[in-house]
Design goal:
8 helices; alpha/beta; Rossmann fold; 7-stranded parallel beta sheet; 7 strands; single chain
């Protein structure tokens, strides 16, 4: 059974690996044997220390994911540094909060660029290498509860995560027959930088906790198993799935 989840020799790109969910998924994939290209605009020093301290292999690629201009460099640096790409985790994301009546075009465009445009074109670029070389692969997107729900005061975030759900299904339809699995993880309410404002609001935090059957905020490490599963041969017949890791929120 353990061989189903063994990622030894696999090469994975993880965007947004510096903290939180991206860090947890990077560490989990490395623990399963994958070599990791850590991609983001901030040096993921702690993530590197943890992976290398446990005997894993990783490289760091500095890139501003608000622009698709960085994609070719991400691909070439990963291949040159680690080898052909087997796994992509599109995790990097940003959020802007404001009443919809006051929401700016800049906040709309900034979020959509990082959360939707670059993930699509990075997936496209990675898939092309897999298809050209006749190799199977795994693409994992980070969706959100707001892929299903409307949310409050986060219009561009909601739009981007609804879009991630849509392109996950679309790409699965197009690429499943080519041996590429495209799926998404749907994190619930996790204790990360993106939710610090919510957790700091005692009333809102209590409202959220009252809705979660597990009775607690998720910890980033709770996401590791889902990432390894979707990246592994255990998920070879899983296509276009949105896997909730939400403490039961969507079941409530």
């Amino acid at each position: 059974m353990s061989k189903l989840f063994d990622l030894s020799g696999k090469v994975a790109i993880v965007t947004g690996p510096n903290t939180g969910l991206g860090q947890a998924m990077s560490i989990a994939l490395a623990e399963a044997g994958a070599k990791i290209a850590l991609v983001g605009r901030v040096e993921p020093d702690e993530t590197v220390k943890i992976i290398e301290g446990a005997g894993g292999t990783c490289i760091t690629i500095m890139a501003d994911l608000s622009s698709t201009d960085v994609i070719a460099g991400i691909i070439s640096q990963t291949v040159n540094g680690l080898g052909p790409i087997d796994i992509l985790v599109n995790n990097a994301g940003i959020i802007r909060r404001e009443d919809s009546t006051d929401f700016s075009e800049k906040d709309w465009d900034d979020v959509m660029a990082v959360n939707l445009r670059t993930p699509f074109f990075l997936a496209q670029a990675v898939a092309r290498t897999m298809i050209d070389e006749g190799r199977p692969g795994k693409i994992i997107n980070t969706a959100s509860l707001l892929s299903y729900q409307g949310g409050i005061r986060v219009p561009s975030y909601t739009a981007s995560k609804s879009g991630i759900a849509g392109i996950t299904r679309l790409l699965a339809n197009e690429w499943a027959a080519k041996g590429i699995n495209v799926n998404a993880i749907v994190p619930g309410y996790f204790a990360t930088d993106n939710t610090k404002d919510l957790r700091a609001d005692a009333s809102r935090s209590q409202e959220i906790l009252a809705r979660i059957p597990a009775g607690r905020w998720g910890e980033p490490s709770d996401l590791g198993g889902a990432a390894v599963f979707l990246a592994s041969s255990a998920a070879d017949y899983v296509h276009g799935a949105l896997l909730p890791v939400d403490g039961g929120w969507l079941a409530r």
